[in-house]
């Protein structure tokens, strides 16, 4: 999980330590469910832009799973999505999970 860059106009963050702590808690919660189900998952909290951090972190991985909020229309044309950039830069298979996706039996 990559930490977004957050700060005021002067580039100062309110409490960067608290932000990192919250990110690590969210990461631990996200990793718990697949681990308990027996999936061999790994991850780490890293600062940087996800489109740059994720492909590097996935070096040597069997699969990289990323989410997608599905920006469409005009916003989608202006913004390069993290999932799209990751698809083109990762050296392993990439699974993009769209918002609202559910498991089907």
What level of helicity do the residues show?
40-55%
What is the straight-line distance between the termini? 28 Å
SSE pattern, N- to C-terminal: EHEHEHHE
How big is the Rg?
Answer: 15 Å
Overall 3D form:
globular
Strand order of the largest sheet: 1-2
Total number of helical segments?
A: 4
Segments where pLDDT lies below 50 for 5+ residues? none
- Note the beta-strand portion: 5-15%
Average pLDDT metric: 76
**Count of DSSP E strands?**
4
Please give the largest β-sheet. 2 strands, parallel
Secondary structural class: alpha/beta
Describe the protein.
- The strands form 2 sheets. A two-stranded parallel ribbon has the order 1-2. A two-stranded parallel sheet has the order 3-4.
- The chain contains 4 helices and 4 strands, in the order βαβαβααβ.
- Helix 1 (16-36) links the parallel strand 1 (2-3) and strand 2 (46-47).
- The longest helix has 21 residues, at 16-36.
- It is globular.
- The chain has 105 residues and is of the alpha/beta class.
- The model has no long low-confidence stretch (mean pLDDT 76).
Give a brief rundown of this model:
By secondary structure, the protein is of the alpha/beta class.
């Amino acid at each position: 999980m990559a930490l977004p860059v957050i700060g005021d106009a002067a580039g100062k963050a309110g409490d960067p330590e608290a932000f990192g702590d919250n990110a690590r808690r969210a990461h631990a919660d996200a990793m718990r469910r697949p681990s308990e189900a027996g999936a061999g998952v790994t991850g780490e909290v890293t600062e940087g832009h996800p489109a740059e951090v994720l492909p590097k972190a996935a070096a040597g991985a069997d699969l990289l799973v990323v989410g997608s909020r599905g920006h469409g229309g005009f916003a989608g044309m202006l913004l390069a999505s993290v999932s799209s950039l990751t698809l083109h830069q990762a050296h392993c298979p990439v699974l993009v999970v769209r918002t609202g996706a559910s498991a089907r039996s």
